[in-house]
Amino acid sequence: MTNKQKKMLVRILISAAALVALYFIPISGLPRLVCYLAVYILIGYDILRKAWKGILNRQPFDENFLMALATIGAFSLAIWTKSGDYTEGIAVMLFYQVGELFQSYAVARSRRNITSLMDIRPDHANIEADGKLIEADPDEVAVGTVITVQPGERVPIDGILIEGNGNLDTAALTGESMPRSVSEGDDIISGCISLNGVLKIRTTKEFGESTVSRIMDLVENASSNKSRSENFISRFARVYTPAVCLSAAALAILLPIARLIAGLAPDWTAWLYRALTFLVVSCPCALVVSIPLGFFAALGGAGKEGILIKGSNYLEALANTDSVAFDKTGTLTQGVFEVTGIHHNQLEEEKILEYAALAECASSHPISKSLQKAHAKEIDRTRVCDIQEISGHGITAKVDGLPIAVGNGKLMQKLGIPYTDCHSIGTILHVAIDNAYAGHIVISDIIKPRAKEAIAALRENGVKRTIMLTGDRKAIADHVAAELGIDEVHSELLPADKVSEIEKLLKTNGKGGRLAFAGDGINDAPVLTRADIGIAMGAMGSDAAIEAADVVLMDDDPLQIAKAIRLSRKCLRIIKQNIIFSLAIKFACLALTAFGIANMWAAIFADVGVMVIAVLNAIRALKVPK
């Protein structure tokens, strides 16, 4: 509990105790009025001050104005009738402050989820000089500087690990509890905590452009993008508040005059009391507080799970998602190629793999890396010479003095070497040794472990259509789609073709439904921007993802998409429940008050009680569905 909340609690307790004490103390007249006024000012001075500021700023119609007018009116009525019953005016203010304290606590609890994300900001960066570590402001560390991260410290700036190895805690970024192992040459992102080992990192970005800064900016600005529900409440309040003030004035003045004209007793006191009660009932606190709180809680809860949503408008759009399109490589597959088969003629598999890995040793292409990984032995480059890369075909080289060719069927045709077609799914590398066909190697992109589960989870959550957009060959795309259970496949697409396909999908999407696109956020930025909701997968360190996407999944698990949709739908259900419940109770109590059935105590329940129930309901959005 904050100091402000503690002070408010003390005020509430003192005021309540004083109100009970005054009930039993036998005083009357002016001393009684002064004592009750002192209690009233103690419990309500901040509300009165806010109401006065609203009047000075020519924006008087808010809950503070209504509460001040109603309670001052209740006091004035007690003075006018000489009843000496000042309890109602204080009780209304007291219970309203109890509701405000409860709301403040709920907002603080929700905000803690947001601020826990902000704790990823590092305090300093360690730079080694003269054998000592010097703490420097991360903002002042230049690109290319070598920084040292000790066990238990947070990585301050993105970079490459040049010395050391160990495990990183990425939970603050991804929500994933499993540590990530790193070794020399790995990319390191800011915001992670080194669990063991001293890491020396060469920075590749300035602090302001690092992942940790980009995430903090995204979280801080999320509340500025308001949903239609929040905008509705703003528009509603602008019309509603003046309307109830005029209605209360009509109850206090016009109806007694009408009774007077009809020859009946005007009973000014009863109608004025009814009008003041009407004002207390009319306070739209439950709506004004619970709806933004619900969105705020959902955004904070999602952030703790590594799902960064740029605003409540995107959260609302996500809830209406009925179609999800995916990029393939890096989204549904791991984006890491592996040797999955070696088909040979007379040579051994190891010999074919060895010659292919040596011939490809100068290439940085993922296929070359997969060959060297499968070979799993140190590459002796002195055995290789005359390396030539033939664009769109493959590579030729001399290994141990023998001519080696590694590439597709076009390369074999170009060299006049007969080869055997392969019907396996994947990239086929034909290998010729000493101008004779030796066999071929099958290299495939591995499907992510939970990709199939992710597609099934989307279908369970009401997504009617799943689509895959990829630049891969049709055979590979169809195979992956069939294995995962995806409805539609569009293959052999260039980046511009993907945008065109998204345009077509948007036109054929269901009425009121939204189309989401999930991609790696680097090559797919135009598509992420064009879709109704752009979801960047595994975007740790990806500037393009954070810029282009509406939703950023810090982990690369596609199952997080279904979780984000469930969260958004839960949040929207809570918001709708609060709107319907609050308005139904509010208008029912207003009608009862207008007809003189409900008194001031019923008004207290209608205002504070409904707000407490709505706030309790709203903070349920903090809990993310598993």
Q: Could you walk me through the main structural features you see in this protein, from its secondary elements to its overall organization?
A:
It is a single chain. The longest helix is centred in the last third of the chain and has 36 residues. Helix 2 packs across helix 4, helix 7 runs antiparallel to helix 8 and helix 11 packs across helix 12. 52% of the residues lie in helices and 19% in strands. The protein has a seven-stranded mixed β-sheet, with helices on both faces. Strands 2-1-3-9-4-7 form a six-stranded antiparallel β-sheet, with no helix packed on it. It has a six-stranded antiparallel β-sheet with strand order 12-17-16-15-14-13, sandwiched between helices. The chain folds into four domains: 238 residues, no CATH class; 82 residues, Calcium-transporting ATPase, cytoplasmic transduction domain A; 132 residues, 3-Layer(aba) Sandwich (Rossmann fold); 113 residues, Calcium-transporting ATPase, cytoplasmic domain N (3-Layer(aba) Sandwich), CATH 3.40.1110. Strand 18, helix 15 and strand 19 form a beta-alpha-beta unit. With 626 residues, the chain is of the alpha+beta class.
